[in-house]
Amino acid sequence: MANSLHSSTSFISNPVNFGHSKIPAQIPGSVSFPSRYLHNFNLNKSDRRVLRVMACSGVEEVQVDVSLSPRVNAVKPSKTVAITDQATALAQAGVSVIRLAAGEPDFDTPVLIAEAGINAIREGFTRYTPNAGTLELRSAICHKLKEENGLSYTPDQILVSNGAKQSILQAVLAVCSPGDEVIIPAPFWVSYPEMARIADATPVILPTRISENFLLDPKVLESKLTEKSRLLILCSPSNPTGSVYPKNLLDEIARIVAKHPRLLVLSDEIYEHIIYAPATHTSFASLPGMWERTLTVNGFSKAFAMTGWRLGYIAGPKHFVAACNKIQSQFTSGASSISQKAGVAALGLGYAGGEVVSKMVKAFRERRDFLVKSFGELEGVKMSEPQGAFYLFIDFSTYYGSEAEGFGKIENSESLCRYLLDKAQVLLH
Ligand SMILES: Cc1ncc(COP(=O)(O)O)c(C=O)c1O
């Protein structure tokens, strides 16, 4: 197969056109093995429309201009909405649905972390914190980055936010000008291109191959970089493929990045601790010459099962972090004081979260092994064994075009997911 993303055996059936290149949509076909919920949102068109409503009195007619900003139009709605709605409707009708779609551990937040949050409330630690986060938490993050990642930062080079998602969006907003290109290897976490669009930047999607474990080929990167290239987003371990970039490949990428003075790198390391030996994690900023141009993002949601606490952070050169800080100061202000206390406790669990985290990683590994083995027994199904995170990105294209009894034709990954929901009450996306 010359290029799995362009061939007819592609793992997706509805390629989306971004400019001139057809790239895979990160849509049905992905399984997350710790998940329960799907994000669900729907956006209106921003064409100019006037809604006529009767005023409360019932006498007057009020006209409301319901047109939206073109920015909203530029953002694509989640492709998982329809199927999630269907699953929710089934669940509401009393059908038990196995949800394998959302990127959320099914473990509860470890007790020591939860107690730190409870204590924060009891002790009245419930006021605004500094915008960038408490010095206590930022110092703990500096310590973690030094010990675990070999990265030296001072607290003024750290910005704590309401989740890593906010950290990434603020970074994109802070460094990209309209028309800049944000380079994103596919398959990607669906939010990256949309964040680029929100910043009026252009997402440039670089294909990867299943045969190369979905890792970015440095030659492809080199061929796509232009003067407009502003930000390369790397995610390792990856959502949705579970690929982990080995150090020698990151070294090669770094050598290419170094030739482009305008190019910065956002290294999303949120799945860092969820990694399966012998794979090991390398922080991009630790590579020669990369500290100055790398924004390292990490958070607490995944490894510490803290999705609802909304806590993430960015580390980078002061100039860039201060810019993100400024955006945050007019946006949400600091993260929750309670969550920040819990974050300190999480980082206090020891190297890579200590035993508490390694227990969860062990469970994820067992689930990965089970699913890889089970799907591996299905004829024609292709996948690359995840080395980290908790997702499987599966090529089911062998089933497309076949008739399923009582369902009809399985046209593509979307209809396959519908079929699985119908027949087995399992939600994939
Ligand atoms: C790759 C990646 N980065 C960042 C995030 C954001 O995590 P949070 O905002 O919960 O910290 C997620 C969540 O799904 C993710 O998968």
Key phrases:
binds pyridoxal-5'-phosphate; globular; single chain; Aspartate Aminotransferase, domain 1; about 35% helix; seven-stranded mixed sheet; disordered N terminus; 2 domains; about 425 residues; alpha/beta; three-stranded antiparallel sheet; Aspartate Aminotransferase, domain 2
Order of helices and strands: EEEEEHHEHHEHEHEHEHEEEHHHEEEEHE
The CATH C-level name of the largest domain is Alpha Beta
- Counted up, domains total 2
Helix content: 25-40%
CATH superfamily assignment of the largest domain? Type I PLP-dependent aspartate aminotransferase-like (Major domain)
Strand count, sense and barrel status of the largest sheet are: 7 strands, mixed
Domain Aminotransferase class I/classII large: 97-427
GO biological process, one term: aromatic amino acid family biosynthetic process, prephenate pathway
GO molecular function: aspartate-prephenate aminotransferase activity; glutamate-prephenate aminotransferase activity; L-aspartate:2-oxoglutarate aminotransferase activity; pyridoxal phosphate binding
Family: Belongs to the class-I pyridoxal-phosphate-dependent aminotransferase family.
